[in-house]
Amino acid sequence: MVTRYGSSFEEDSKGRQINVGSKERKASMIGGAALAITGVKKLTQGNILSGLLMLASGGMFYNRGKSGHCNMYQKMGVNTARDVQTPIRLEKVVTINRTPQQVYDFWRDLENLPKFMNHLESVQVRGPVISHWKAVGAGGLSVEWDAEIVQDIPGQKISWQSIGEADVANEGTVRFEEAPGNRGTEVHVLISYTPPGGAVGKAAARFLQTVNAVQLEQDLKRLKQILETGVTATAESWAM
Prior knowledge:
Shape: elongated
Low-confidence stretches: 1-9, 235-240
Order of helices and strands: EEHHHEHEEEEEEHHH
Distance between the termini: 30 Å
Largest sheet: 7 strands, antiparallel
Radius of gyration: 24 Å
Strand order of the largest sheet: 3-9-8-7-6-5-4
Strand content: 25-35%
Number of helices: 7
């Protein structure tokens, strides 16, 4: 099984996307084995046709459970594996040649975030700790949520979490620590996204395809450039 870095997509040993949930896989393997055993018994009793059919069906269900891939689900666009809400956790560190208070002040003005986070279209501050975020993912798909700052230590740390009926539940923490050797500030960022299940989760998953650790690293490089040079880099320059 292969897990793509920074994403919840998983593949079986043949490179096919896993689209069967864990409970369903277990039931499929148990049912498939029982059907195959019954088929063998039919064969020993001389019921060749029914025995072969049950043996073949049992093998198909067993392999479906073992691999986690279902061709019929693929054709129908169904993915019960996504009912298991596995958070996507991203963590990166960047050193910026500015004081912790300077970096904190820039980040704390949340409407600055779209200047260096490419997937964010806008952040609107709606109160001392409440804000509204809009992000755009693959194919122009947008998701929105309200967020609340749950911890705010000036010059040191900001923690936030989505509230209400967010399209994609998320939370994050950014810490501002003095870098060794008087080199400025180490910015430690931890963000976690939890896609919902069902049809809404399918749309959210499309958005999360564009959210990964590489993108977060590029976001933080843009933050570093803005704070150290005052220049905002273009998305194209960091994509190289």
